[in-house]
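Figure 2 data, in text form.
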Amino acid sequence: MAKRALITGVSGQDGAYLSRLLTEKGYEVFGLDINISEQACWRLRYLDIYDKVNLIEADMEDGQALLAAVRRSAPGEIYNLAAHSAPGTSFQRPVECGDVTGLGLARLLEAARQSSPQARIFQASTRDLFGPGDGGAYNEERPFSPSNPYAAAKLYAHWMARIYRDSYDMYICNGIMFNHESPLRGLEFVTRKITDTAAGISLGQEGRLKLGNMEAKIDWGYAPEYMQAAWLMLQQDDPDDYVIATGETHSVEEFVRRAFEILGLDWASYVEVDKGLMRPSDIVEQKGDYSKAEARLGWRPRVKFGRLVEIMVEEDLARWKRRANGEQLPWDVR
């Protein structure tokens, strides 16, 4: 009998890659999201797995809907990827962010406790728990110091996961994931904004690229590899929390420079800093220490910074070319 998994936030970058990974492993996958239309789930279509996922429409703010979803899917594994995942915009919608990103996990845990207490649960935590950073390597023992509403909501979810694990003897893991990118990243994230705009500029379809903080140094990894780590966490004998990262940092300016270099362009001729895009609080430098994941899960990053930027630029360039040829692309609402 095939293993069954429930993925919340299935229409997002991580949900799509995890769905592909699990279907390839023979799982019966149930995907939950607030909108399961074909347009909203363009990433699943992009990976050619839209018809392979059993889609469930439900809101993370609705506890009864989550309970019904858990009962319907009867999962052996649950992956909570649902969140309002842009730290910058969380300042504009702090209450909604807290309700979905924080309380949403509490509702899901309670649904699992009532209906599938033996299910193994993965909670997508975040490096934003650590705050702006000081250049040091952050491991699982580093104290948390959230500096935006998104991080505060994630901290609540992180601790609720640990409380349910300890109080109810449930198998729950927190994956403290540093930034992970891909061609399926949304255009509201700086990496996709850079690669998409740069590709458009190279074809004469875009004019300039406006960015906020160019000096922030970030630990960037490749999203499909991070979903492999999430799966590995639920295959161990005992649950635990793990930092997933690359162990190296690169500035936003380095990302821009590399993206334009791939396209044969001088980035300085097309990029300008817009102070209006600065966050009230922002990253200084954060680097993750994934040694625990390497030792216990056998996981380590393979796609590093230079190759990651290449993957994203090449895919965005191909998309712009297809669009220029009149193709109506089923991805990314601009």
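Caption note: The domain at 4-180+222-244 is CATH 3.40.50.720 (Rossmann fold).
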